[in-house]
Design a protein that fits this description.
The complex is a heterodimer of chains A (489) and B (299). Chain A is α/β, with parallel strands linked by helices and 489 residues long. Chain A is 33% helix and 15% strand. Chain A has helices at residues 14-19, 30-33, 46-53, 63-66, 74-82, 86-94, 100-106, 113-116, 130-144, 166-177, 194-197, 206-218, 235-239, 272-281, 309-320, 341-350, 418-421, 453-456, 461-481; strands spanning 158-162, 181-185, 222-224, 246-249, 255-256, 269-271, 301-305, 325-329, 353-355, 358-365, 371-384, 390-394, 400-403, 406-409, 413-414, 448-450. In chain A, strands 3-2-1-4-16 form a 5-stranded parallel β-sheet. In chain A, strands 6-14-7-8-9 form a 5-stranded parallel β-sheet. In chain A, strands 10, 11, 12 and 13 form a 4-stranded antiparallel β-sheet that branches. In chain A, 54% of the residues are buried. With 299 residues, chain B is α/β, with parallel strands linked by helices. Helix content of chain B is 33%, strand content 30%. Chain B contains 9 helices and 16 strands. The longest helix of chain B is centred in the last third of the chain and has 24 residues, at 262-285. Chain B is globular and about 65 Å long. Classes of the chains: A alpha/beta (489), B alpha/beta (299). Chains A and B meet through strand 5 and helix 14 of A and helix 1, strand 7, helix 7 and helix 8 of B.
Chain lengths: 489, 299
């Protein structure tokens, strides 16, 4: 066991720290919250935060930092919480992460920092609640109106960021901090990308996103909505007439995949993107106060197909909109589900039923063009496939019908082609995603960088932010040195 | 915010709006559309661009008042603002020298077919235009279409102007008369486009239709505008269209999907009429309040 740093304000011995239980996140009652869109997690109090921070072992080799995609200095910010310097803790996080109130809420910490935490390696000891602590200091910073604005002189360099999702906002924040002039272009009428149209209010309140955007505005970042880069303006025009030195493409994964099974065009069958966009962006659940309609879910049986965070966001939204039955239909088992563990638990508490090892083979019609149910087949797990997960195989003769009024398909996305098809010389892979170097995020076009889902295919907010952070670093190097290295393709 | 430079009544219930949108005006090509949102609680609706003026930085759209959003739009005039206008979206029309092109425009579809008809003429095609409307008053852009067509045929459903009948009757006449046709472009109500597709299918005449399904983002993100083609494939009208090979499209599914929110649309319209009536009453008492209502569009 490593010894704590000499300057530590932590009065506890390492043994004592191991004995402090992980402080639970206060949350809304499951029965109540399944009726509303207000946030599930309520956040630590200062007392809970300090109590939790005391558990940090302050390891000499902080593996929590190494396992964070943006390299947040976890140990240092936690030590500042122990010392009671919450503003200092926020500033420390901001050195590496410009959206702490967002990552503190939606990051799968169990796969990153908390997976690296030494506490969790001990039997019956849970890792430090790093995400909860991050959220606490970010909310503290917001409540107190604290701003850490860039002090560097303007460089005179202009950067265009395409897409205002997690990768784009990270690039914008990081480059504004280094004195570059950044303008973010967004296709939709609201800023935030997937944070706004995809992630529901109960997991990430829109107010939090607005506050983080205001922070970026205060740092000097400019935003322009209603611009579909590739259609409204091209990358070439941005770098030509509009005089940008660099363009970063962070347009996200884009197009929803369908399953290609009969009945997918029935009324009542939605892609997860459409379903969530109607709810989150267009506020269709407030129809007719808001004009965008959606199918009334009250008393209806709803299923989502898929096992990722998007699937859970969709089905938990359906529950909140009055669904009588809310099912997750997933073709593998719970162990393979890509969703965050906390979301799976929350969904279970709220009454979502899970049909594991089940896959629809046909959507059934009521004879009038509307969905009536799904014919499903039971699956078993065979040999591991390319993703390393065991491939699900249908069990012959196991078909059954699930009566349903609404189905939401959340089986992944494919590359949106708009930017690629309008940017000559921008190399893509065979699935249509933009090719970018994995350390510098440079594309095949000089001065053009890319990151996030449009490079990797659908992943998480924090992985997109990691790409944004790497891109910002190499954009800054390019802007300062003027040297463009051709990526190794 | 996007300013309406001019709003002009073309026919009963049909208005042309000239909107200041320099970025879009600079890029627009025939066949493309915009999505607009009037105000904060508003829905996003797709509308084909009629024309654009890059020098003035304006685009024009022709809108028929059908539901709540289009009625609300019709209540706006010169100098009013729209919250959002985004575009130009979709693939431009494929303009080539095909030979003889028949452009079929039904109702307000004529205004949407016009820019493509003009481009076809410029590309050296022989353009035969067939435009139809319910009655005389609803015949749109007759002069403009005439100017870009070698032959212009006009029909009205009730016979109150030109020839009584449907646009498909005229198309059938042309085909039966042995007119060589290389391409048909049909823009209008789904039933009309389906009828055109059925006519030309047997004759193996290449036929293009401009589809206007339910749509939200218009960038390929939501998949709401998916069109069933070739019996099993999904294509998105916003990025793969809006123009499709008519003989590949399953029109039954299109009709069914477009009807998905009919009940909600009806409710929304009723609510809108009630709101407007209440506003009218209040206006006598409080002119200021009504002004705020018009600007915000709320309550």
């Amino acid at each position: 066991m490593t010894q704590p740093a000499a300057r530590s304000a932590n009065p506890l011995t390492l043994k004592e720290r191991m004995k402090v239980p992980r402080q639970l996140m206060p949350e809304q009652d499951a029965a109540l919250r399944s009726q509303t869109f207000t946030e599930v997690n309520l956040g630590y109090s200062a007392e809970l935060a300090r109590q939790e921070a005391l558990r940090c072992l302050e390891c000499a080799k902080a593996t929590c930092v190494q396992t964070c995609p943006v390299g947040v200095k976890v140990k240092e910010f936690v030590q500042l919480i122990v010392a009671g310097d919450f503003a200092g803790a926020a500033a420390k996080i901001r050195e590496d992460n410009v959206l702490p109130a967002i990552t503190g809420r939606v990051c799968p910490q169990e796969d990153h920092c908390e997976a690296g935490c030494k506490l969790g390696k001990t039997k019956n000891v849970r890792p430090l609640g790093i995400g909860y602590l991050e959220r606490f200091v970010a909310d503290y910073e917001q409540r107190m109106g604290i701003r850490h604005l860039p002090k560097v002189p303007p460089t005179g360099k202009k950067v265009a960021v395409v897409g205002s999702g997690p990768s784009g906002l990270t690039v914008a924040g990081d480059l504004a901090q280094r004195g570059h002039k950044v303008r973010v272009f967004e296709a939709l009428h609201e800023l935030g990308g997937v944070l706004v149209y995809g992630i529901p209010e109960f997991r990430l309140p829109k107010q939090i996103i607005r506050e983080q955007l205001d922070y970026l505005r205060d740092m000097g970042v400019e935003f322009e909505t209603d611009v579909v880069v590739g259609r409204t303006v091209t990358i070439d025009e941005l770098m030509g007439e509009e005089g940008y030195d660099v363009v970063f493409i962070g347009t996200g994964a884009g197009s929803p995949q369908f399953m290609g099974i009969p009945g997918e065009h029935l009324n009542g069958v939605y892609s997860a993107n459409e379903f969530l966009t109607r709810i989150n962006l267009m506020k269709a659940y407030q129809f007719p106060r808001y004009d965008e309609p959606m199918v009334d879910l009250h008393g209806k049986d709803v299923a989502v197909i898929g096992g990722g965070n998007t699937a859970l966001d969709a089905i938990r939204s359906a529950l909140r909109l009055g669904a009588r039955k809310a099912y997750v239909v997933y073709r593998r088992s719970e162990t393979e589900m890509p969703a965050r563990i906390e979301e799976v638990h929350h969904a279970q508490q709220e009454g979502v039923e899970f049909h594991m090892l089940t896959n629809p083979v046909e959507f059934l019609s009521d004879g009038k063009g509307w969905l009536a149910g799904a014919r499903c087949v039971r699956m078993e797990l065979g040999e591991p496939d390319a993703s390393g997960r065991r491939r699900p195989v249908p069990i012959a003769g196991s078909e059954f019908e699930l009566p349903l009024s609404v189905v939401v398909i959340a089986v992944g996305t494919s590359a949106n082609p708009i930017v690629q098809s309008t940017t000559p010389g921008l190399a893509t892979d065979k699935r249509g995603y933009i090719q970018a170097d994995s350390t510098t995020q440079r594309t095949s076009r000089k001065g053009v960088f890319a990151g996030g889902d449009i490079v990797t295919g659908s992943a998480t907010v924090i992985l997109a932010m990691g790409a944004g952070r790497r891109a910002a670093k190499s954009i800054h190097e390019y802007l300062t040195s003027g040297i463009w290295e051709v990526p190794a393709a | 915010m996007f300013k309406i430079r001019q709003a002009q009544l073309l026919a009963p219930g049909i208005k042309r709006f000239v909107i200041e949108a320099p970025r879009i005006a600079h890029k627009q090509k025939p066949g493309q559309f915009v999505i607009l949102r009037i105000n904060e609680p508003g829905e996003r609706i797709p509308l084909t661009i009629e024309s654009s003026d890059p020098v003035e930085g304006t685009i024009s759209i022709v809108v028929q008042a059908v539901g709540k959003t289009t009625h609300l739009l019709h209540s706006l005039g010169d100098g009013d603002f729209l919250a959002d206008v985004v575009g130009p979206l979709g693939k431009p029309s494929e303009i080539e020298r095909f030979g003889t092109v028949v452009v079929v425009g039904g109702g307000v579809g004529t205004a949407m077919a016009y820019p493509t008809a003009a481009a076809m003429k410029r590309a050296g095609n022989r353009v035969i235009s067939i435009i139809g409307a319910r009655n005389k008053e609803l015949v749109l852009l007759e002069k403009e279409m005439g100017a870009v067509s070698d032959i212009l045929l006009v029909t009205t459903d009730d016979g109150s102007y030109a020839e009584k009948g449907f646009v498909t009757d005229k198309l059938r006449d042309l085909m039966q008369a042995g007119t060589h046709i290389d391409l048909v472009l049909a823009v209008g109500p789904v039933v009309m486009m389906r009828a055109v597709a059925e006519l030309t299918r047997e004759a193996h005449i290449r036929t293009v239709v401009s589809l206007n399904p339910i749509m939200i983002d218009g960038t390929g993100m939501c998949g709401g505008c998916r069109v069933l083609v070739d019996g099993k494939k999904s294509e998105f009208a916003c990025v793969d269209g809006p123009e499709f090979d008519a003989h590949r499209v399953n029109f039954d599914v299109l009709v069914q999907r477009n009807a998905m929110y009919h009940e909600a649309e009806r409710l929304s319209m009723e609510e809108f009429i009630r709101e407007r009536a209440a506003q009218g009453e209040r206006a006598h008492n409080d002119a200021e309040e009504q002004c705020a209502v018009l600007q915000g569009g709320k309550r």
